[in-house]
Design brief:
Structural class: mainly alpha
Strand order of the largest sheet: 1-2
Mean pLDDT: 82
Helix content: over 70%
Order of helices and strands: HHHHHHHHHHHHHHHHHHEHHE
Radius of gyration: 22 Å
CATH architecture: Orthogonal Bundle
CATH topology: Hydantoin permease
Largest sheet: 2 strands, antiparallel
CATH superfamily: Hydantoin permease
């Protein structure tokens, strides 16, 4: 472990002949999704395309499942406050990380190399995100496969295909879509996001015809009671991994203003809109089964569209997982693997998880994510916006579209704080103290800031830096 005084000129320069710059340019040419490089200005996408991806990643079956779970165990107003608290947390995290990504043009896992975790720390983070997002892929694909099996059970041929077979078919189909990259994901979302919203609105209209809103607002929960802390953690945990992965597609936006509106609109339409409609549907139908709920209100066509909308979130899960794994492999072995090969490998793994029934662990998975992932965001936000340890390096190479010439190998403080934040979240979850996800995020961020500042003062330096390497990629 070593410390150095931050130099006014930074470590990175505009030397386009450096190894890191050459590697970055080469990567940009070979990979049109910029897996291990900055997204150049000419590759930025129109705001509405990225907004549709964002809305599509929230407006999906899992959001209805979450809202229905809240409605089954809480009153409408209890579910409203749980959704509000969880959504505010997601909005702040998404905006902060997404803005950093828009400025720097880097994915979440690659950005973490210069926001606290260093090269090897980013390998651990990339691996965790890859595993987490593949898990989400398995969960969503299970919903997709089960939905298709139930909906088409009345047909002669397709009705003979059981859930595991459908899970294999749908898993492969989504994998093929992701192979074509973020533009294909945006094009698919452009079609299915409006259809999904229309179906949910129609189902709500049908429900309101026979169930006055005044009665639904005040009816007790039809199922076992759920606490506000547990519900808020489910809301935050349900999309916390997605919020931290905002840079994976937010890097294609031009500035922080676009990121702000993307996250704000996505949160209101997806979190508040879909969650609260699902709460009312659960109260009206007395069930938390989404397929039964939609069948009761919008029929087979509606269910088909709602279930098919799972693809909009699952393609992002697989996309982010491939970026995380690519970062991990590059950090550990200094190799740049073909992204398409990674997508296929992860798609097969995720499909296998859905076939063996990972959906049965859905609630536990959400709760775990609610406390395990937020500490990482706390460290990244503090490092980038407050400590600003690598900002000069990033700014010096931003206009050239290259990466800084060096990066920290390890930041042990960030890794220790991550573990402590997770432990605090788990303990507060067990004893129902506050909101575990928020607890872990705040504790990790504050603790990281306090330790880094105290360590810098003890060593008599302006900014703490650990051993660096010039082998950026």
């Amino acid at each position: 472990m070593s410390t150095t005084q931050t130099q006014s000129t930074g470590i990175g320069t505009n030397d386009a002949t450096s190894t890191a710059s050459a590697a970055s340019v080469e990567q940009s040419v070979q990979d049109n999704d910029y897996t291990l490089s900055r997204v150049p200005a000419n590759a930025k996408q129109p705001f509405w395309k990225i907004l549709v991806i964002r809305i599509g990643s929230i407006c999906c079956v899992s959001q209805l499942v979450l809202g229905a779970s809240l409605g089954y165990g809480m009153s409408f107003w209890g579910a409203f406050w749980a959704t509000m608290l969880g959504s505010v947390l997601l909005q702040v995290i998404s905006w902060a990380l997404g803005t950093a990504a828009a400025r720097e043009g880097l994915s979440t896992s690659l950005l973490s190399r210069w926001t606290g975790f260093g090269k090897m720390g980013s390998a651990i983070f990339g691996g965790v995100m890859a595993i987490s997002m593949v898990g989400w892929f398995g969960v969503q694909n299970s919903v997709f496969g089960e939905g298709m099996a139930n909906i088409l059970s009345f047909t002669d041929f397709l009705g003979k295909l059981e859930t595991p077979v459908w899970s294999i078919i749908t898993g492969i189909a989504i994998t093929v879509l992701v192979v074509f990259g973020v533009k294909a994901i945006a094009n698919f979302a452009t079609v299915f996001v409006p259809l999904f919203i229309l179906v949910v609105l129609y189902a709500s209209f049908v429900m309101f015809q026979s169930n006055p809103l005044s009665s639904l607002f005040n009816t007790p929960a039809p199922g076992p009671a759920m606490s506000l802390g547990a519900a808020t953690t489910m809301v935050a945990g349900g999309f916390i991994a997605g919020a931290i992965c905002t840079p994976d597609y937010g890097r294609f936006l031009r500035n922080g203003t676009e990121v702000f509106w993307m996250t704000l609109i996505g949160t209101f339409v997806g979190e508040l809109g879909m969650n609260l409609l699902a709460v009312l549907l659960a109260h009206a139908t007395g069930t938390n089964n989404v397929v039964d709920m939609m069948m009761a209100t919008s029929g087979v066509i509606g269910v088909l569209i709602v279930v098919a909308s799972t693809v909009k979130l699952n393609d992002i899960n697989l996309y982010s997982s491939s970026l995380g794994l690519s970062t991990m492999v590059n950090a550990l072995f200094n190799r740049k693997l073909n992204r398409n090969a990674l997508v296929w490998g992860l798609g097969i793994v995720g499909t296998f998880l859905s076939v063996i029934g990972i959906i049965n662990y859905f609630t536990g998975f959400l709760t775990l994510l609610g406390v395990a992932i937020p500490p990482v965001a706390g460290v990244m936000v503090i490092d980038y916006y407050i400590l600003r340890r690598s900002r000069k390096d990033l700014e010096a190479t931003r206009d050239a579209g290259t990466l800084p010439e060096s990066v920290e190998k390890w930041n042990p403080v960030a890794l220790i704080v991550w573990v402590i934040g997770f432990a605090v979240g788990e303990v507060t979850s067990i004893y129902s103290i506050g909101i575990p996800g928020l607890n872990s995020l705040i504790i990790a961020g504050l603790l990281y800031w306090a330790i880094m500042v105290a360590y810098a003062k003890a060593k008599g330096v302006e900014t703490v830096e650990f051993a660096r390497t010039e082998q950026v990629l």
